[in-house]
Amino acid sequence: MKIETVAPDSIAAELDIRPGDSLIRINGHFIRDEIDFRFYAGEEMVELLVGRDSGQVLFEIEKEPDDLLGIRLKEFPMRACGNHCVFCFTDQNPAGLRKSLYFKDEDYRLSFLYGQYTTLTNTSWKDLKRIVTQRLSPLYISVHATDWEVRKYLFGLKRRDRLPEKLQFLADHGIQLHTQIVLCPGVNDGAQLTKTVHDLSRFFPAVASIAIVPVGLTKHRGKLPFLNPVIIADARRILEQVDQFQCKFRSMFGSGFVFPSDEFYIIAGREIPGADYYEGYPQIEDGVGIIRYLLAAFREIIPQLPERIPEEHSATFLSGLNAAPFLKKEIIPALDKIENLHTRVVPVKNRFYGETITVTGLLTGQDYAQAIRQNGVTNTALISSKCVNRDGLFLDDWTVEKLAEETGCAVVLMDDFLTGLPDFIKEI
Q: Is residue 11 part of a domain?
């Protein structure tokens, strides 16, 4: 693995290990990726075999187990997905986007490192043994259904992927699993949902939770199989079913075990549950409890807000359709108490993917620009930092700078939980 950076004043820097060197082995173990590096570098005595143009160099290091070497490796090649899921969001991208947006990853390592979901369909028994040996826990598993015929249709599988055996192996060896079901009305709901939840409950507590999320359908499905969106009646029926599941599992396990994403409550017109319902928010990255967490996080930062700012200033929150009503109801009244500060919320329709896509994180620069122009936003525009990648690009390759230039607004990125809001207001 190539070394990308070496931290100044680190152990690696003192040994003159350099960016561009290759990390070959640690304590005799070949290094395949970041996970191997973390696992084997956590010893007190570490031998690093490093390759460079002049040859190989062996470094012997004695350190505390928690001491970091200061080495950052280049990203490892991700495994590609071999599934053909009928609801795959990547397949619903429009033409003309950057190449990386068409790559479908399916890699248990990304599940461990970043909480991304994996199906385990391309995870070999050798991989599973590595997961157990290196304690790669928790993992996030996309299940969707346990009935073979339904799985075959949803995943586009041609042969059995042995998911039950894989889950059993991981459960037997103490690996914690969080699972998800992408709910497709008429396919894996109703009796199929009951079967899937029942089958997964047999692995509790190793399978610690099930998230149920509605299928996301863009306007770019083209010749893809027809799927029904989740409508009001579906959402209400699913929530009633989940209420029954939870009643049973709270009695059996002391945990609700099954958690619907916030979208179901919004579609059904039901109130978002309180914080205790989410049991520590294990599935927050899947949109389960994110609104409740946002509101709770905002209440914690209210004491940090100033009573006034020196001069009049206006700012506009631009948000996806799901979150906008909650910002307007819960956040704006608190900010209105700050003298000289004027705020409002503008809901942003997703015209890039279609108005059925209502989450903030999938808004593009063009979506924001259109909303800014149509709503007469001329002041500071506050938008979610989740809409841009590490290179500062929206999904449509716009940059924050381009959005500001096109609209004449000062554009400020804000994290989902508004932790940077007090500092932003104080610096106005």
A: yes
